[in-house]
Amino acid sequence: MLEFNQVHKAYATPQGPLVVLEGIDLRLGGGESLALMGESGSGKSTLLHLAAGLDLPDAGEVNVAGHAISALNEPSRARLRRDTLGLVFQQFHLVPSLNVFDNLRLQARLAGRERPEWSTHLAERLGLAGLERRYPEQLSGGQQQRLAIGRALAPRPALLLADEPTGNLDEASAGDVLELLLELVREAGSALLMVTHSPQVATPLDRCLRLTHGRLEPLEEYDQEASRR
Ligand SMILES: Nc1ncnc2c1ncn2[C@@H]1O[C@H](COP(=O)(O)OP(=O)(O)OP(=O)(O)O)[C@@H](O)[C@H]1O
């Protein structure tokens, strides 16, 4: 579903190139879930942007659903995102002029994969039933977050990319939203790559990797924790 082969990425800065990723290898299979941890500034969002084809590697290859993204032009990458990916970023990017109902089904409509029963199910599970005619500005932060999750899952994407999807919520609602997110990801049959700072958030996922000094390494404390369960 997602493959990184020896991916390198640096940014140009006034002080010279800032190397962020230095030979990343990664495989994520269909329906698998992976947590990506690492200190602030370690390159997690950079890796997620590369996975989404929003940016291109300097060297190496990123493969999404069998497509080498560097070989695609921007319109083809946009089509690949539309047809294959769901994105939940820290900024929700809800469309202010569309109500909850239309925001929820936007991605599914664009992808030509709208299923009204699934959209209704998502709205109910995400606690948005009854709010369909409201506009994003009339929702709480948590409701906006849940709407962003619902919109990304509405087309049942093969791969959901999530950057701190519960980062703006208090601990109690973050736990609830995460549990819900994982259930809905399973129901949708999507693979999941999720950036998080929180070991509690990472624990229920199949695997956890840490980005450090431009490379990925298994998180040993996490593996021990997982093997105790
Ligand atoms: N467009 C850019 N130009 C220059 N430097 C950048 C750019 N985007 C990110 N960086 C730098 O690259 C490094 C990695 O950034 P990135 O946002 O990927 O880290 P992160 O692990 O997601 O951080 P956080 O956990 O704080 O969100 C940081 O040092 C950041 O300052």
Would you kindly provide a written description of the structure presented here, covering whatever features stand out?
The chain is of the alpha/beta class and 229 residues long. It has a single domain (2-228), classed as P-loop containing nucleotide triphosphate hydrolases (Rossmann fold, 3-Layer(aba) Sandwich), CATH 3.40.50. The protein is built from eight helices and ten strands. It has helices spanning 44-51, 74-84, 100-110, 116-125, 141-153, 171-188, 199-202, 220-228, and strands at 2-13, 16-28, 33-37, 59-64, 67-68, 85-88, 159-163, 191-195, 207-212, 215-218. The strands form two sheets. A six-stranded mixed beta sheet has the order 6-7-8-3-9-10, with helices on both faces. A four-stranded antiparallel beta sheet has the order 2-1-4-5. The longest helix is centred in the C-terminal third of the chain and has 18 residues, at 171-188. The radius of gyration is 17 Å and the shape is globular. The relative contact order is 0.19. Adenosine-5'-triphosphate binds at residues 11, 13, 18, 20, 38, 40-46. Pfam families: ABC_tran. One of its GO terms (cellular component) is plasma membrane. GO terms for molecular function: ATP binding; ATP hydrolysis activity; transmembrane transporter activity. InterPro entries: AAA+_ATPase, ABC_transporter-like_ATP-bd, ABC_transporter-like_CS, ABC_transpr_LolD-like, MacB-like_ATP-bd, P-loop_NTPase. Keywords: ATP-binding, Nucleotide-binding, Transport.
